[in-house]
Amino acid sequence: MTRQGSARIGVDVLDSTELDQLLRRAWFLRYCYAPEEIGRADELGAERRREFLAGRFAAKEAVLKAMGKGLLQGVAPREICVTQADDGSPEVRLEGAAAELPSPSTDLALSISHKDTVVTAVAVPLPPAHTGTTALPPRTEETTPMTAPNTGEDTTTTAFLRVRIGQEDAHYGGGIVDGAHILKLFGDLVTEITIRTDGDEGLLSEYSAVKFTAPVAPGDYVEATARLTSKTRLRRVVDLRAHKVIAADPADRPSRARRLDEPRLVCSATATTVVPAQKVTAASGED
């Protein structure tokens, strides 16, 4: 509800598991998400992908409510594209029918928050005098963990490795490194995550949503990162990515290499690890 002269605030809350079946359907993705949103989601592991797409869906509904419209009322959700500003905050770009809607504002402030599987999005039209300011904290799903730990400490648990690929790591023709080498790096990161959260190396039970997106060769430098995205009493789910940041370039001379202007994603995956019940420490708590 709004009063005359007051701003209309759009709020949407959903459980991301409600979208599990729909996110498997190509028609739903095409209808609800802009191509760049789908492209970004496809770079993520399974858990992180669901979190990302659920956050976008909630944001689109919140924006529609802020503009006085509902879902399926003449605007396709894909026409509301949620991008990311340089400071990490979400930005809204309206296209097609969404751009033609009458709006009391030239800009929208948007916030997306996650807690366990629950996603909350809030959209607030900004008056012209305040266009360009941020009325809501720039907290987005890119920086907010899916599940908050029970300790009251830092809610983000991450790990990082940077390695140079050696000549001895070449496995296939043309000096290509096998994918198992990257998965070994991922395994070390998952081990570090469980040591930091539980005081135990844990038992890696599975990888899922493994995608190899670019080749790796001797002389390349690879940065691998891990982020704890959810946890139960014994299970930890970790989102993993590996990017090539320096590429060997031996065309002119064997020792030549070049720094990449943009890190190139070479592999992404989701790992599930299990902490033995007898090893769970007080630091891990219980969910």
TrEMBL record:
Its EC number is 2.7.8.7. It catalyses: apo-[ACP] + CoA = holo-[ACP] + adenosine 3',5'-bisphosphate + H(+). The keyword Heme does not apply. It holds the Pfam family ACPS. Transmembrane segments: none annotated. GO terms for molecular function: holo-[acyl-carrier-protein] synthase activity; magnesium ion binding. Residues 129-154 are annotated as: Disordered. Residues 8-101 form the 4'-phosphopantetheinyl transferase domain. It is found in: Cytoplasm. Its cofactor is Mg(2+). Residues 143-154 have a biased composition (Polar residues). GO terms for cellular component: cytoplasm. GO terms for biological process: fatty acid biosynthetic process. It comes from the Bacteria. Keywords: Cytoplasm, Fatty acid biosynthesis, Fatty acid metabolism, Lipid biosynthesis, Lipid metabolism, Magnesium, Metal-binding, Transferase. Mg(2+) binds at residues 12, 61. InterPro entries: 4-PPantetheinyl_Trfase_dom (IPR008278), 4-PPantetheinyl_Trfase_dom_sf (IPR037143), ACPS (IPR002582), HotDog_dom_sf (IPR029069), Ppantetheine-prot_Trfase_dom (IPR004568). Transfers the 4'-phosphopantetheine moiety from coenzyme A to a Ser of acyl-carrier-protein. Belongs to the P-Pant transferase superfamily. AcpS family. This is Holo-[acyl-carrier-protein] synthase. The gene is acpS.
